[in-house]
Amino acid sequence: MGETAEARLKRMAMRSWRRGTKEMDLVLGPFADAHLAGLSEADLLTYDALLAENDQDLMAWILGQSAPPADLAGMLERITAFAQTRLKAGI
Predict the structure, then answer these.
(1) How far apart are CA 61 and CA 17, in angstroms?
(2) Terminal-to-terminal C-alpha distance of the chain
């Protein structure tokens, strides 16, 4: 039997908060807390694939220093916009 929906969300949230670099913890953790439960199945698959990427690549993509893979670009745009909004709000 596969992973339950609840276990999947818990695993993804934990992986978002425990990346290996504090910077990515602070970008992905709050996004996961705010949005994981409401993501579509397709978005969850994309987000799970994104979690498999290394932090250096993720940070470069989020900062616009390099172009992300096309299949992750939309999700990265959402994450970046969320992080920028939090930063502007001083959260």
Answers:
(1) 18
(2) 40
* 23 contacts 56 by C-beta, under 8 angstroms: no
Rounded Cα distance between 68 and 24, Å, is: 16
Whether 42 shows a pLDDT value over 90: the answer reads: yes
Alpha-carbon distance of 67 to 86, in angstroms, equals: 23
CB 31 within 8 A of CB 83: yes
With tokens 């932090």, the residue in question is 55
The CATH code that applies to domain 5-89 is 1.10.150.250
- Proportion of the chain above pLDDT 90, given as a percent: 89
Query: Does the pLDDT of residue 34 top 80, yes or no?
Result: yes
pTM passes above 0.90: yes
Q: Name the residue ranges covered by the structural domains of the chain.
A: 5-89
